[in-house]
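W.,

You were right to be curious about this one. When I first looked at the sequence I had no strong expectations either way, so I just let the prediction run and decided to look at it fresh. Below is the sequence, 130 residues in total, followed by the output.
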Amino acid sequence: MTGGRALASWLVLKIPDATLQRTALALSTILAAALALAHTAALIATFAVLLGVTLAPVFPATFALLMAHRPPARTAGIALAASGIGAAALPWLMGVVSTRANSLQLALTLPIAAALAMLILSTASVRAES
């Protein structure tokens, strides 16, 4: 993910924020699904690394899109806090689901759903602004 953040810093100079965000979310959804279906150590490792790289630009691009709307400080603070809570809660919830269901594959449906929901919300917000 750290390498992905370095790559994201370079990509944000070349690609518009919205395009980078949506591309990263779409690839993250696909890679999380592929990770859930992988059965060999090599595939699991490959998909996990690629997923980390594609997740890296999501927060910076999303926050840049928010800041482009010049929200009040309170709104920006709430968005920042919510993203931190989400980043902490999702792994915890995945652990709870995988432990209770005895299935990591089932737990991986949570990040798939989260990335897909963010992608849908991102494209819906563009339609609302048009």
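Here's what jumped out at me. The radius of gyration is 16 Å. And, maybe more interesting for your project: The chain has seven helices and no strands.

Coffee later to discuss?

I.
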